[in-house]
């Protein structure tokens, strides 16, 4: 049995069947749930995809960026132009959105990733503003009026399937030679280059993948709202995604998932409070950050926690108390 | 032929000449120590060898190949690894991951392999893990492999840094003040360990302040003062060298009239 599970083809089939099951389950949810709740779930999925991208850049590779919404907007506009102006099928349009954002991520990555910390944050912030202003003044994007007539092709099963794929990809990436190199860059750049890690390469890789995810999220977003305008992708949007990652726990994939659920659902759950809604939302953020300064699951190694929970009744942790 | 050689290496930071026309040869399989008072330029020499700094003048060659101009991350691949004066571990990662990252330059898997997880990638990963565990066992850290690096004791962190540098099987290991902050017992263990590493065929080049350790362990010693090499030889020769004593203790005379005042 174990040998069978180690077979690559079996693993691929297993992965595909998980995806199939997810899509099937999501379809059932899609049919049962009222549209309002479904819409919230859909946005959780979209935010999750984008936040996982940002988690790779900021949480895993340690490069603070404040311009994630710019990549989202590039994905949104690229896919909208593709599907509306060139009649490209929806899913291909999503891919085009992601690739466009990823490409811009690489181009922007070369000059800006020489900077570190706060300086990089400011540079990406500036880049995001440039992109927003550019979209406001372009003819093909219909400027400040906004891009109309996008087909609402995004469905809940599609979003969830993509989100699950991204989660898997991120977990695999983090547990590979590549992911370890990215973590090393976050921890100590000088030491990483001393052990042979090309820090620039891995930073740009993280940037490209993160931007790709943002682009995919943006494309799905555009095909959900059917109407996009440059102000949808302002500074606040970047901060929204960043707070998902920070609140969930920088570098933690389960944390990012929980963060996406909590922060997307909270404004809706708090809706009965009407005028006090955003105040309570802000308070919620402050309280969480006070009690969990590293985020909800920050610093929690899920694999170890599970292993400990299983091993607890059997024996004490090895290597201790000799 | 010497393994690593520095020829007339000079580096200036603005008006300051940190390393001044230094010539140094490291022979295959020896333990060479570089000593000197604080600020003599010892760590700068290491940073020059690992390409963190580029020399203003002069040439460095390793195994017959020139090192100047090669990016830092390719240095490890050529067989030069190092530890740092202030411990630079990947502190939020596990001990095992730290060592696995040390073997980065011996792996090949890229993005595509990470996402497809083909059998080749898994095999490489397994080999890597085995290598890492061998290195950890060598430095007596295998029982701590799941722990986070920042939770280790100081001496263990020092050893982990050495394990991380050793796992890629370098030809030469540069140790920058390996005994700093260690107690006498830990130093004895360290000396033993350095000898064992040398016995596996790895050349050792170390910078150290602890004279007892340096005199005990090294076969040859080079002395730097104000960026210049003032002496070189076996421990006995260096110990009785007049210039060295002067650099460390002073000559009892003022070197310059201006200071006297």
Would you mind describing this structure in some detail?
- Chain A is an all-alpha fold.
- Chain A has helices at residues 2-5, 8-32, 35-60, 68-85, 90-112, 117-137, 156-174, 177-187, 189-194, 199-225, 235-248, 253-269, 277-291, 302-311.
- The mean pLDDT of chain A is 87.
- Chain B contains eleven helices and ten strands.
- A six-stranded mixed sheet of chain B has the order 6-7-8-3-9-10, sandwiched between helices. Chain B has a four-stranded antiparallel sheet with strand order 2-1-4-5, covered by helices on one side.
Task: Give me the secondary-structure topology.
The complex is a heterodimer of chains A (322) and B (261).
Chain A: H1 2-5, H2 8-32, H3 35-60, H4 68-85, H5 90-112, H6 117-137, H7 156-174, H8 177-187, H9 189-194, H10 199-225, H11 235-248, H12 253-269, H13 277-291, H14 302-311
Helix pairs in contact in A: 2-7, 3-7, 3-10, 3-11, 3-12, 4-5, 4-6, 4-10, 5-10, 8-10, 11-12
Chain B: E1 4-13, E2 16-26, E3 31-35, H1 42-49, E4 57-62, E5 65-66, H2 72-78, E6 80-82, H3 95-102, H4 111-116, H5 119-138, H6 154-166, E7 172-176, H7 184-199, E8 203-207, H8 211-217, E9 220-225, E10 228-233, H9 235-239, H10 242-249, H11 257-260
Parallel strand pairs in B: 3-8, 3-9, 6-7, 7-8
Antiparallel strand pairs in B: 1-2, 1-4, 4-5, 9-10
